[in-house]
Amino acid sequence: MFKYQILPVPFKTVVTGIPVLHSSAQTKYEKEIERDLHQIIEEVEGIRFNDFKDLESKAEASLGYWNKNIKKTINSAGSDYKSYSKDKEAQITTQIYLFPMIQMFCETKRGSKFEIYSLGSANKFMIYSNF
Description:
Layout: H1 30-40, E1 47-49, H2 52-63, H3 68-86, E2 96-98, E3 101-107, E4 113-120, E5 125-129
Antiparallel strand pairs: 1-2, 3-4, 4-5
């Protein structure tokens, strides 16, 4: 005679390398930037952090400036980070990247307006524009 019990199969979900973009710029290019970063994240130069506590304490020094949008973005990213950290079925396996972004709003002599966004550093960067 045999006894058996039906139990759920134990497993652990691992999110592997899918970057989540939190942007203080709030541009119409965020989906495009997120897609491109996912493809070339190792090539675009960003500031890497192993722990979110390091990001909170060193972001201003790393970027060279600080404003309320950056603080709001870091708080939003921190909220996501904490929820993933508390989830027993998820494991964060990638580093945290901070990318400097230049955002320019331009107007020509004739009144035409366009925007230019650059993400990265002098060594490697991505550019987005609507002209």
